[in-house]
């Protein structure tokens, strides 16, 4: 049961990261974006797309959750492998 939960969490993290990557590739993301005179822009390799405040916040949350999820998944995998090897 525990292994299944870890595997499902891994799939969720992977799906979240892939969706973030696809959206960033097409439109951009808030991490590379900017705010100028109250206007919000998603950045994509030096090109900026104007968006609403809500979309900008959503993009920032999605970016940080995707990157944080990947780091957490790596940490969980390392701990899981360490426990497997110590048995």
What report would you give on this structure?
- It is a single chain.
- This protein has 87 residues and is α+β, with helices and mostly antiparallel strands.
- The chain is 68% helix and 22% strand.
- The protein is built from two helices and three strands; from the N terminus they run αβββα.
- α1 runs antiparallel to α2.
- The mean pLDDT is 91.
Distance between the termini: 18 Å
Work out the radius of gyration: 17 Å
Sheet/helix structural class: alpha+beta
Nearest-integer average pLDDT: 91
H/E series? HEEEH
Largest sheet descriptor: 3 strands, antiparallel
The total beta strand count reads 3
| Tally of domains | 1
Portion of residues in beta strands equals 15-25%
Low-confidence spans: pLDDT under 50, at least 5 residues?
Answer: none
Percent helix range: 55-70%
Shape: elongated
Number of helical runs? 2
Strand order of the largest sheet: 1-2-3
Write a compact overview of the structure shown.
The protein has 87 residues and is α+β, with helices and mostly antiparallel strands. It is 68% helix and 22% strand. Strands 1-2-3 form a three-stranded antiparallel β-sheet.
What are the salient characteristics of this protein?
single chain, 87 residues, alpha+beta, three-stranded antiparallel beta sheet, 2 helices, 3 strands, 68% helix, 22% strand, elongated
Present the secondary structure layout.
Layout: H1 2-26, E1 29-36, E2 39-44, E3 47-51, H2 53-86
Antiparallel strand pairs: 1-2, 2-3
């Amino acid at each position: 049961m525990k292994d299944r939960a870890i595997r499902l969490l891994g799939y969720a993290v992977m799906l979240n990261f892939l969706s973030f990557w696809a959206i960033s590739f097409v439109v951009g993301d808030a991490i590379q974006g900017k705010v100028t005179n109250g206007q919000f822009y998603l950045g994509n390799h030096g090109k900026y797309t104007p968006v609403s405040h809500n979309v900008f916040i959503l993009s920032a949350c999605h970016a940080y959750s995707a990157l944080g999820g990947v780091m957490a998944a790596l940490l969980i995998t390392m701990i899981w492998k360490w426990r497997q090897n110590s048995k």
